[in-house]
Amino acid sequence: MTATTYSSDVPIARTEPTVAVRRRTIDSLLTAGGAVFAVVLFIAGGLLMWGSNFAEDYVYDELSSQNIVFPPAAALEEEGRTDLVQYADETVDTGTEAEAYASFIDGHLANVAEGQTYADLGAPEREANAAVEEATASGAPADEVAALEADAATITGQRNTLFKGETLRGLLLSAFAWSTVGRIAGIAAWAAFAAGAVMVVLVLFGFRHHHKVVVAEK
Fold it and tell me: Is residue 115 a part of any domain in this protein?
C-alpha cells in the first residue's frame, strides 16, 4: 500500500509494510484445529455412550427388581386392551414396557371414583369424615352413623387405591423417560463418533496437502 505525504510542497512517497502469511501456516492451523475438534468429538461420543449405557442399565435394574408382570393375553383381551397383548406374561424390565404398563394402570384408575384423581377426592374425603364426626357428636341414630362411616370408608379406599396406582404409574413413566434419554444419548454418541471419523479423514487430507505445500515452497 502506498501513501503520499507532503513536506515543503514536495510529495514524498511512503510504503506501508504488508504482512505475508504463508499457505503452509494456514494449512497447519486448520489441520491442528481439525485434530483438536476430532478429539473433542470422540470424547463427547464416549461420554454420551457412557450416559446411554448407565441409563439403560439403571432402568433395567430398577424395573426387574420390582417383578411387575403383564397379565395373560386372555385377561388383557377381556379388558379390551388388545394393544397390550404383545406384552402378555412379560416381566416389565424396559422403558417401552414400563410405558405400556403405565397405560394399563391408567385404564384401571379411570374406573375408580368415576375418573377422579387422588387430589380430586381430598375434599370429599374430608367432608365425609366431618359428617361422621358431626353425626356422632349430635347423637344421630346408629344406622345413620354407620351409613356415613361406610361412605367415608369408600372414599378413603378409593383415594388409597388412586394414590398407589398414580404413584406406580408415575414411577414407570419416569423409568420410560430415563430410557428415552438414554436412547437419545446413544444416537448422539454414534453421531459424534461418525463426525469424529470424518474429521480424522479431513485431518489426514490436511496433513497430506500441508506436506505438498512444504515441498513446493522449498
Answer: yes
What single string gives the DSSP state of each residue in 25-51? HHHHHHHHHHHHHHHHHHHHHHHHHHH
* 133 lies in some domain: no
Q: Residue 71's domain spans which residues?
A: 33-121+162-217
Residue 149, φ and ψ in degrees, nearest 5: -65, -40
Confidence tier at 21 by pLDDT (50, 70, 90): very low
Q: Average pLDDT, stretch 163-172?
A: 96
Q: Number of folded domains in the chain?
A: 1
Number of H helices, E strands in the chain: 5, 2
Could you tell me the sign of the dihedral formed by the alpha carbons of 109, 111, 115, 121, in that order?
negative
Distances from the Cα of 191 to the Cαs of 132, 149, 196, 202, in angstroms?
A: 64, 62, 8, 17
Instruction: Name every residue whose Cβ is closer than 8 Å to that of residue 154 and which is 6 or more positions away in sequence.
Output: none
Instruction: Please choose, from the candidates 141, 119, 137, the residue with its C-alpha nearest in 3D space to the C-alpha of residue 129.
Output: 137
pTM over 0.70: yes
Residue from 144, 151, 113, 112 nearest 129 by CA = 151
Asked if the structure places residue 25 within a domain, the reply is: no
DSSP class per residue in 66-130 = TT-BPPPHHHHHHTT-GGGGGGTT-B--SHHHHHHHHHHHHHHHTTSGGG--TTTTHHHHHHHHH
Q: Is 21 helix (H, G, I), strand (E, B) or coil?
A: coil
Q: How far apart are CA 88 and CA 138, in angstroms?
A: 54
